[in-house]
Design a protein that fits this description.
Length: about 725
């Protein structure tokens, strides 16, 4: 099979991505690190991040190891299959997701001090190094997901035999489940950690004492910079790893349905197995396009030293080139693999690409400094924190409209193209329509590598800014650090918008995968009858889950921030020499507060997302569980877009004051308060919700057959 030219792209892309990543790590490591003080600060951030991940991963692996044993007895053993297919893939998905997070954090903490030092002499060099650090993150995460999903598929196919190949995607669905659950722990725990430190550093340092958050006199500054890595790097790496893994497997499950339909229909000129393998081949092609597109990120030094570089423009070049290459390559793999009429499926994949571009433009509009929403928050800050918060909430709520309209139009058009394909080959139009949405989602997710590279740039630039300030070299660097940091806020917002957009696009395919599972388990016809109380109850509970989840996440940040603020105030009160610069703060105490809070508070929200679909499925039946999936998806999409966008807009409004030299003014203090409201929204609850949406769907897919067999149906 490996000699097949399409399948051969899988190992080729993995090898190329890993090789380039290793080269970039070597290249970055060879760059000078700057002064001894810069190296000491860098080492403290890196060691703090590694120590946190070590503690976090022990907790996660313990919990998920127990769940793996439960899965074995609940699914593999129950179905008289002693081979741990589902539970084994669950454990592998867990480990791979955590490894993806570790690789992401490792790349970022290697690059941050190199970027800080490069900013002393250049504007273009720090941008290039920060992007290269993010590119390692993007390439490795996609390559690891591709290796895990494709490797498990071919292994399980070899184990169960040729005749049952359509069953393989169901057996590897545990990989997506494990990746999703591990990612939720990682993203949520990292978000709690970083925002507890960030809020404490902002409110006490900036507002009360009038010093910057990254001032070395600020006791929370090391914890804040560690948090950027464990939240925005390790958390986001695990996050997008689970996105592409879970949605790949869901696509393969739907492809298995077409494999059966096309085989029975005996359609000429079609190789049915390609419908299962198309998602992983498309992912490989996207990875190769990322590698080539990354070469287009070539920032040039301004001819006038007083003129500031535009990082977004340079990063956007890589995004545009990757998109064009994917659009061209998809034509050949779609028409080559999927046979007669596949041009309609190619059109559907282009719809997904276009939707991704539109969502990126919308997100940039709502979070960029030069656009109306951020300027509105900036102006509102001049009359105090209340009006700042009013305007920020308004921006967040408004920002839900255009992305939802975009995704809705994309799904309708993709479904229509899929139906046209079905008519061409003579299969069920709905099955073809759903596969049209699959190819659209695959088209959107093919951009994951370059999006993740841009996202990884953000925390690296942020850390570099912290190192610059703490080491006292601001005069050498000038405004370059602030420009890089502001662009980082926008790239992080773009990645969150992309992740939520892909989750919305994947909603139909994940729901269809769930339907396929329960129908195969014995449900003759799956209908969500809104006249049934059980379905309404499932829908209401599902709509409630993202709100309760977000409440628990934001409350966790509030509780941890309370402890952090009191600790920073205590150190300033008991040791006035700290503010005089005559004594170093106790950084370790603040790091410990964030660490303990993250370990403690991440468990309850994560268990909510795990137990809600299981409880509804077993107590009320598979239809009620399906309704729960609809409720979680709809309310989760809205809430995530609102929290992510409002938080990023609040942050960049604050940055706008600082870039204009208005630090310490009353309006700036109001903007800082607004930013602290937005912090847990955009970095804790918001980015965790789309993982929640997919995790709930994955739990239902894994346990769907058991819902059919053992549900109690307590209400009709």
């Amino acid at each position: 099979m490996i000699t097949d030219p399409y399948i051969a792209t899988i190992p080729l892309s993995i090898f190329a991505a890993v090789a380039l990543s290793l080269y970039l790590i070597w290249y970055i490591s060879k760059k000078p690190s700057g002064t001894e003080k810069m190296v000491q600060i860098h080492r403290g951030i890196r060691e703090g991040a590694l120590a946190y991940l070590k503690r976090q991963y022990k907790v996660i692996l313990t919990i998920l190891g127990i769940l793996g044993i439960i899965l074995y007895f609940a699914i593999d053993y129950t179905h008289n299959n002693m081979t741990p297919f589902v539970s084994g893939s669950f454990i592998l998905g867990t480990i791979a997701s955590l490894l993806a997070g570790f690789v992401s954090m490792d790349a970022a903490t290697r690059a941050n001090v190199k970027v800080a030092n490069a900013a002393r002499k250049s504007q273009s060099e720090p941008l290039k190094l920060a992007f290269y650090g993010g590119l390692v993150l993007g390439l490795m995460v996609v390559a690891m997901s591709l290796a895990g999903v494709a490797g498990l598929f071919f292994l399980y196919w070899w184990m169960i035999g040729e005749k049952c190949v359509e069953k393989v995607p169901e057996l590897i669905m545990g990989f997506g489940f494990g990746a999703s659950l591990a990612a939720l722990f990682a993203q949520l725990g990292g978000g709690i950690y970083t925002k507890a430190a960030d809020v404490g550093a902002d409110l006490v340092g900036k507002v009360e004492k009038g010093i910057p958050e990254d001032d070395p006199r600020n006791p929370a500054t090391i914890a804040d910079n560690v948090g950027d890595n464990v939240g925005d790097c390790a958390g986001r790496g695990a996050d997008l790893f689970e996105s592409i893994s879970a949605e790949n497997i869901g696509s393969m499950i739907i492809g298995a349905g077409l494999y059966v339909a096309l085989t029975k229909a005996g359609v000429q000129g079609v190789f049915p197995l390609y419908f299962i393998l198309f998602p992983v081949v498309a992912r490989a092609v996207g990875l190769i396009a990322t590698i080539i597109g990354a070469a287009a990120v070539r920032p040039s030094e301004p001819s006038d030293p007083k003129k500031l570089i535009n990082p977004i423009a340079s990063l956007r070049n890589g995004f545009i080139v990757s998109t064009i290459l994917i659009a061209i390559a998809f034509y050949f793999i779609t028409t080559g693999m999927l046979g007669p009429g596949s041009i309609y499926l190619y059109y559907a994949s282009i719809v997904g690409l276009i939707a991704a571009l539109v969502i990126e433009l919308i997100t940039e509009y709502y979070t960029g400094e030069s656009h109306r929403p951020v300027k509105d928050i900036y102006e509102a800050s001049k009359t105090g924190p209340a009006t700042n918060i009013h305007m920020g909430l308004s921006v967040g709520m408004e920002a839900t409209a255009l992305p939802v309209v975009t995704v809705s139009i994309a799904l309708i058009i993709a479904y229509w193209f899929g139906r046209l394909y079905a008519q061409t080959v003579g299969i069920d139009p709905h099955a073809g329509g759903v596969y049209g949405t699959v190819t659209a989602t695959i088209g959107m997710l093919s951009l994951t590598g370059i999006i993740l590279a841009m996202d990884g740039y953000g925390p690296i630039a942020d850390n570099a800014g912290g190192i610059i300030e703490m080491s006292g070299i601001e005069d050498e660097v000038g405004p370059t650090s602030d420009v890089l940091d502001a662009a980082g806020n926008t790239t992080k917002a773009l990645a969150k918008g992309f992740a939520m957009g892909s989750a919305a696009m994947a909603a139909l395919l994940l729901f269809q995968a769930y339907i396929d599972i329960v129908v195969a388990a014995g449900v003759k016809e799956f209908i969500l009858d809104l006249a049934k109380p059980s379905v309404i109850v499932g829908l209401l509970i599902g709509a409630m889950v993202p709100f309760l989840f977000s409440a628990l996440a934001i409350r966790a940040v509030g509780k941890a921030s309370h402890d952090m603020i009191n600790e920073v105030r205590r150190q300033f009160r008991e040791h006035p020499e700290i503010l005089e610069g005559k004594m170093l703060p106790d950084y370790a105490r603040c790091v410990d507060i964030s660490t303990r809070a993250a370990q403690r508070e991440m468990i309850l929200p994560s268990l909510l997302s795990l137990l809600a679909p299981i409880a509804v499925g077993f107590l009320l039946g598979p239809a009620a569980a399906g309704a729960l999936l609809v409720g979680v998806t709809v309310s989760g999409i809205m809430l995530a877009f609102m929290l992510n966008t409002a938080g990023a807009a609040w942050d960049n409004a604050k940055k706008l004051f600082e870039r204009l030299g208005l630090k310490g003014t009353e309006a700036h203090k109001a903007a800082v308060i607004g930013d602290t409201v937005g912090d847990p929204a955009k970095d804790t609850a918001g980015p965790s919700i789309h993982i929640l949406v997919k995790l709930v769907n994955n739990v239902a897919i894994v346990f769907g057959a058991l819902f059919v067999l053992y549900a109690l149906y307590l209400i009709p």
